[in-house]
Amino acid sequence: MLGYPPPGTIDFGVKMRNGEAEDERCGADAPAVAKILREMHRVAGGVDLKAKIEGMRRYGIRPQRMIGLSVPQLRTLARTLTREHGLDQRLAEALWETGIHDALVLASLVGDPGKITPRVMERWARDFASWDVCDACCCNLFDRSPHAWTQVEKFARSPDEFVRRAAFSMTAAIAVHDKAAEDSVFLNALPLIEKYAFDERNFVRKALNWALRSIGKRNAALREAAIACAERIRAQGTPSARWIAADALRELRS
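Above: the chain's sequence. Below: its structure in token form.
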């Protein structure tokens, strides 16, 4: 019998294999992924998976396959992996291919924003089926990619609820994380928020509101621009536009 530490602790070491051919997306990383998944099951321990899934459903998250790790547990595992091997986009893509909810979030934490390609960003976005995985990718990985703003515009045009959400979750994340960004990039983003403020789908309108508020909180000049944008959105008169504007104005004027 293997002498594993108790559930809830991390005891992990994966020797990544470089320079090997890969036939599938998991390819040469399949053994590493299998070992990671075993560790995830061990850390999850005796979690009541049915109760956890039911709890997630109350927040609009409906995972098809999951192990049951918490976000703090996933972050601890990601820190262990990246401390030993650095960010690893190849591993992230192999984790993504498992389709396991926890592994999707972990992929966002170990992926390399400098190496993820627009094609992979688009493929992952098409796979989004819940707001938490969408936001994990946007806030942990996509927002730091050099392709982020191009993808914001492309994702916004998508009719898919979670792909469009990704556009504005990414905008909000960039506004929070990229302290060096010029005001001009956010001023250019405001018309896009205004354009899609009609979208009444819950996960889209919340992301639009989040992006608008995040831009407005960067500095005084952007606050004024965001308030003016919110006023124009309110004038659109749709229920979604009125809610986005009212909530943003409440915070930005407080």
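The first helix runs from residue 30 to 44.
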